Amino acid sequence: MRAPAISGGREARGQRPDALACERIVLGGVVQGVGFRPFVYRLAQQLGVAGWVRNNAGVVEICAAAAPETLNDFRAALLAEAPPAARPELHAVSPGAFTGTGFTILDSTAGETVQGLPPDLAPCPDCLAEMKAPGRRHRYPFINCTQCGPRYSIIRALPYDRANTTMAEFPLCPACAAEYANPADRRFHAEPVACPDCGPRLRFGAQEGEAALAACLMALRAGQIVAVKGVGGYHLFCDAADEAAVARLRTRKHRPEKPLALLLPEARVMDYVVADAPALHLPSRPILLLEKRPGLPEVLAPGLTELGVMLPDSPLHHLLAEGFGAALVATSANRSGEPMVTDEAQAEAELAGIADGFLHHNRRIERAVDDSVVRIIDGAPHILRAGRGLSPIEMQLPFTLGRPVLALGGHMKSAIALAWGNKAVISPHLGELDNAPAHAAFARMAADLQALYGVRAEVLITDAHEGYASTRWARTQDLPVETVWHHHAHASAVAGEHGGAEMLAFTWDGVGLGSDGALWGGEALLGRPGAWRVAARLKRLRLQGGDAVSRAPWRSGAAMCWHTGITPPEGLVPDPLLHTAWTRGLNCHESSAAGRLFDGAAALLGLRHTASYEGQGPALLEALAGPLPNAAPLPLHEVGGVWEADWSPLVPMLLDDTLPNPERAARFHAALVATGVEIARLVGAKTVGLAGGVFQNRKLAEALLARLRAARITAHLGRKIPCNDAGLSFGQVIEFGARQWMR
């Protein structure tokens, strides 16, 4: 919806227009959908600046006339005093022309591209207070303003006006229209603005509105599993204290042991975690991994010391959490491995047999957005999965691309990056590309990113592994395809987040095709984007079983034993013939992957022989490990100009039952930390980056970062860009762009 242009204010500082200086100011970044134009209007009123402000092709354009010193103050305040949800960037200042008086908010103009698309934001304090107070929005589950509410999940097209969102289906009542048109109101041009008279409504069975909310809470208290439509899709909720309900949810979702997140009312946070953290209260409302309190039901996160917790991300979730008064299990409502459910009919069809009830609302979700996941590592929040509230992630590139590109990432933890000029935009988390629904969601996202930003890719960038679904999809498109080696992309992701610096990048993960045709995952790459070489690696391990290896830690543990001439522990290998197959190299591959060593260590300590979810063995190993001792590095030998770390001495230590399991797990971590520091010393690295999913391990990452810094080596771990495969698409853009600049 577009309101008429708004004018007002006194003549600038009481001066004649011909005595004023005039500037055209252009700001990019996140400046649309966050109350930035009303802020500019009020600031101009306050300082006596004449002119106008408007949205234009994804930027905010301002014509400002005032005395030169006033313009200096105005420009500084635009950046320093911007609304909390805004992230303005000054793009240009040039001479302007304005001969009128007062200050005006002009209509938006459409343009070819957009910048700074706003993410979905949790309710602000003002809206929460209004929702709790008597008034026309008392307990209204869709309250919002320019500082909060849905954005990315409801946008159909740009410019970001109500007519281009799913809120276009809800004509404004006179009271909401008056707020929308009033530049002094916090709902001025708040596109999702609504109230009970004109906005979305809840439904639970035959109940609507407040009765629907009450029916949902009653079902949860009765131990039922309820599918609740949120901002970016449906969640499945149940009472976290009802172990029978949690067990039913696990059975129905085929999720026997994978940790479950909790939705908490703010007043109960400390009942579930050892310490609160500021990141829990961010407007993005991520799932934050925090140390759990002793005594909680083990069924929530079996074998782990941390729990994923989140605070309500919408007014509806506030009403549910506060109304229930205790922790609710909250997990994405989808069949295992398939995309998140967003549509009412789809929810009732696909979740039949999983959910006992449904809390729907009639605000349509234009695009699914899953929860973000964040972990505090090295004292700061690091994104492990970018979803609602954080996506799309927008990054400045350390170069300017000659043509737009679409980078398709890998196969696991899929995310797509669209890049043009000196900017990259990274999609929300898509997940694993293991089935037809996931492939369809991937293709939709590839088209949607380009349509939404008004940028058409001229080149596709993929992983070099031809078996990945993303690579296969690229081969079906009528565009040039460039490939990037998996671990070069990991290295370039951490380098790109830190300006494209030269560094030694440890690229430790579970698997990825290397440039020599082997499976990598334990390499240290020296150089910079576009020019990486292997400086060191973990000794390669022969693994038997093909793709089954990642789901069977016992295979890695057995192979580690066989490599070192040690008989595996009794009961580890289910069939003696497998040793014969391993010896003969039948269905075997060589891998340097650090992730497989973590799998093997978990198996040798008896933590896990088979994995019910990705990374289970390493997660249990990290949780088990006590304080990390000082340790000697693994033996290092130079082979063909590459330092090779021999992990063989770890095997007898892991099998030494005179040592407590927590000590063995800690020694394993400590040896790898010491090895990383020694490799950095041997190659003379001044800067080190950590990349790859293994560095989601907080104990490993924190210890290695600390030891490197103690050795006066600058050390980085990606914060905005996930270190796991979700960061591959950004790394592919950086690697591709660097190659172009080197030609």
Automatic annotation (TrEMBL):
GO terms for molecular function: acylphosphatase activity; carboxyl- or carbamoyltransferase activity; double-stranded RNA binding; ligase activity; zinc ion binding. This is Carbamoyltransferase HypF. Residues 210-389 form the YrdC-like domain. Pathway: Protein modification; [NiFe] hydrogenase maturation. Its EC number is 6.2.-.-. Belongs to the carbamoyltransferase HypF family. PROSITE patterns: ACYLPHOSPHATASE_1, ACYLPHOSPHATASE_3, YRDC. The active site is at R37, N55. Keywords: Hydrolase, Ligase, Metal-binding, Zinc, Zinc-finger. It is an enzyme of class 6 (ligase). It catalyses: an acyl phosphate + H2O = a carboxylate + phosphate + H(+); C-terminal L-cysteinyl-[HypE protein] + carbamoyl phosphate + ATP + H2O = C-terminal S-carboxamide-L-cysteinyl-[HypE protein] + AMP + phosphate + diphosphate + H(+). SUPFAM superfamilies: Acylphosphatase/BLUF domain-like, YrdC/RibB. NCBIfam families: hypF. Involved in the maturation of [NiFe] hydrogenases. Along with HypE, it catalyzes the synthesis of the CN ligands of the active site iron of [NiFe]-hydrogenases. HypF functions as a carbamoyl transferase using carbamoylphosphate as a substrate and transferring the carboxamido moiety in an ATP-dependent reaction to the thiolate of the C-terminal cysteine of HypE yielding a protein-S-carboxamide. Pfam families: Acylphosphatase, HypF_C, HypF_C_2, Sua5_yciO_yrdC, zf-HYPF. Residues 22-107 form the Acylphosphatase-like domain. One of its GO terms (biological process) is protein maturation. InterPro entries: Acylphosphatase-like_dom (IPR001792), Acylphosphatase-like_dom_sf (IPR036046), Acylphosphatase_CS (IPR017968), Carbamoyltrans_HypF-like (IPR051060), Carbamoyltransferase_HypF (IPR004421), DHBP_synth_RibB-like_a/b_dom (IPR017945), HypF_C (IPR041440), HypF_C_2 (IPR055128).
